[in-house]
Amino acid sequence: MMKPLISAAFVFGLVASTTAFAAERTVILAVQNMYCAACPHTVKSSLQSVPGVKAVSVSYQDKTAVVTFDDAKTNVKALATATTNAGYPSAPKG
Fold first, then answer.
1. What sign has the CA pseudo-torsion 54, 59, 62, 63?
2. Most exposed among 2, 12, 17, 42, judged by the fewest C-beta atoms under 10 Å?
3. What is the pTM of this model?
4. Tens-digit pLDDT profile for residues 10-32
């Protein structure tokens, strides 16, 4: 009887600890190949399709994308992959 209860408590602890460490992060990506006014729309759409992305702002002038995301659901590598797959390679600006 105690074993299922202990197992359930352990699983609940794992789920709760993962959620506790999740955080909202913001990254600025330097985006290549943006040469026309339609490019930022494509970059924004590619980033918004990534699960966990909360907000995206793309600047054609600065050739950047500012992305706010849930780091428990995605990461910077997945964001860069999304833009690269859309034809706009990117990397964290820094």
1. positive
2. 2
3. 0.77
4. 455 555 444 556 799 999 999 99
Res 45: pLDDT:
98
Q: What angle do CA 38, 78, 44 make, to 5 degrees?
A: 20
SS (HEC) of the chain: CHHHHHHHHHHHHHHHHHHHHCCEEEEEEEECCCCCCCHHHHHHHHHHCCCCEEEEEEECCCCEEEEEEECCCCCHHHHHHHHHHCCCCEEECC
The arrangement of strands across the sheet holding 64-70 comes to 53-59, 64-70, 24-31, 90-92
> What's the pLDDT at 6?
52
